[in-house]
């Protein structure tokens, strides 16, 4: 049995949905189908999730929201018409969509989560109806039906382990397909809460683990995961096979093909993940597997780069005499719900690296002021243009001169390195530079290792 | 005006004290003399400070402590006899020494601090008397006379900034020498508290800053600070001149010539420090100067290695989602008064590096148990044999290929590198290895760079 997940671009139009349905129908093992909300049909198009966010805001301000609601409904209607689905089959979808502003919500965050989740919810309902219309036994199931329980903040929820106990109890009929909406779960009190953006990958992984399937197929719009970003490297090599850990390290710094958090349930359930292309399902894609018995084909599997980092440099004599300095720092971060990424330290200094999207300019000011007041550093500097490049490969283990071989050509190109972090895992090297150097870092390493 | 500090080995015997006094007398600028307690006269000898610790314990258990007190007094008496000092001049020293068990102390820690401090206190008194006996105008001054105020724990105190205001008020006569005991200060309530072991260097630096002298001469038993440990490298090069920051980074990992904390007051007062040999005062020694206008003579100034580190490896998926993980960790460390040195992190893991002397086996167990309970890591490992090597040099700045050139030969020698930390200061590279590899690391880097 397989879990198959389709991304938004794979379900953006009737034509795309048809390709997805053919993929499902071509393999009886593809029993559990996780769908995203319809994505962009072209570069100028707007994703249904973004339309729903606009809908949520518009309907808060006035009762004059028919325009945006109709625009959303039209997306589903167009797909239905492609399959000659009778209009009456859409009545329930329309009713649910237009009822959203009238429901009761615990607060504004839950309201937003519910609006957003309907992109997936309605798409899963529609997909089930299309399959049924085509004479295929299909059943719509959603988080409340199976007990996919989440906790945490309404728009950045986390799966609750109870989910896996609940999923074990679900009986599946041998000849039916389950169509399941991605991206959201229900809280213990029954409200909808979503994962972070792109979270349908997470739903697929949770179901893959919960139903203990043989394979989790993740269909997207690229042939494979590439060894480097194709917008930086011309025709980078596709990665045929890699380990969970390699994928974790690569997703960290910008490999956006597969959601950062989605790998965890797959790892925990030891479910192999196959990233494939909806438009070319015959291609092998990228297979992500457990570490056991993995034989690396190359030294470097991939190079990922993330430009959206910032760093705070603090200098104070004897700062590591006593654990108090870092404790106070963490208390300040925790108070403002700020998470940091890394904290390399020298003898009398400390650099704290953040993901930029977690920090507004205002928050940076507040944090810097509090640090100045309570820690009184001798020097404090905010570095706004920090980039992190990850060089990853199971084949890097025990290659003791590799780090030097990676760094030398960067030095030759006058790239100034702010941080080097050879992970304890020994399968990656993290390189911190200024943002403007990041593409040169990736190109130089790629060219030297033909990664 | 100069502050001159003599270490314990420079004052261990009458013969040594004579050399020290000749150094003082040869330069009228050497006005403020900071003395340590008499050190070892030979490898089998016991330092007076260690005798005083034994005295403190012995006198706690019984009134039968004359033996150890006499043994200590004998050390001062022998020095006095070398200079034909009349026996009556020692009466005060003997009285103070034998009175120690009878004084009132706030607690056992203050008692220990007071016992230990008398090694320096009595030696400064004796030295002043010898100079006076030789017809030289000399005055014994101690922390309570000048307001050298300390705060913190009784045996690991820190200077209070008020000290510098107090020192500004002290009037020195032009033709007198001040003999001042190192190692201790007085608390705001008038009790003796000591710096950490070897803290006479700190006293010298405080006086150098407080009296705003031209030079702080630190006399010890080596010709200079060497670019590497002479027990690992045959005849390493002496360092003629280096910056404060270079010295800070080198002392961190085991350059024990000059006390780690002693540089701070010198830096704050911008007082140059000259480390010299009591037995060869004509040699230039090592001059430690501010960074401004410093022109490095070589790429690498020195290589220091510290074997006494340990590391705790923690692995948990998504550990950096939220600042809570590190905060809880810091709360545990703070609760047990444990300070950490560095905390390099990967995507899902964290290594915390400690100085071993700060941790007993029992404390390690307690901390690991608390981490297991409150943070529930997926993996936790204690690495007991961690070593840190520091490669330091102002000349390393802007040498962008240097890090690669340092690492490559280490890889060739099959040395596995656990951590690389290129400091934000850009004048040092920190290399973490297993303890057994540390000497090979130092040798390899030294040989390659002829440091």
TrEMBL record, chains A, B:
Keyword list, A-Z: Amino-acid biosynthesis, ATP-binding, Diaminopimelate biosynthesis, Kinase, Nucleotide-binding, Transferase
Protein purpose: Catalyzes the phosphorylation of the beta-carboxyl group of aspartic acid with ATP to yield 4-phospho-L-aspartate, which is involved in the branched biosynthetic pathway leading to the biosynthesis of amino acids threonine, isoleucine and methionine.
Full protein name: Aspartokinase
SUPFAM superfamilies: ACT-like, Carbamate kinase-like
Enzyme Commission code(s) on record: 2.7.2.4
Limits of the Aspartate/glutamate/uridylate kinase domain: 2-277
Organism phylogeny: Bacteria, Bacillati, Bacillota, Bacilli, Lactobacillales
Catalytic reaction list: L-aspartate + ATP = 4-phospho-L-aspartate + ADP
Domain Aspartokinase ACT: 390-449
Family as reported in the entry's similarity comment: Belongs to the aspartokinase family.
GO biological process, one term: diaminopimelate biosynthetic process
GO MF, any single term: aspartate kinase activity
Pfam families in alphabetical order: AA_kinase, ACT_9
Cellular component, GO, one term: cytosol
Class of the enzyme per the UniProt entry, highest EC level: transferase
Organism from which the protein derives: Lactobacillus kefiranofaciens
Pathway named in the protein's UniProt entry: Amino-acid biosynthesis; L-methionine biosynthesis via de novo pathway; L-homoserine from L-aspartate: step 1/3; Amino-acid biosynthesis; L-threonine biosynthesis; L-threonine from L-aspartate: step 1/5; Amino-acid biosynthesis; L-lysine biosynthesis via DAP pathway; (S)-tetrahydrodipicolinate from L-aspartate: step 1/4
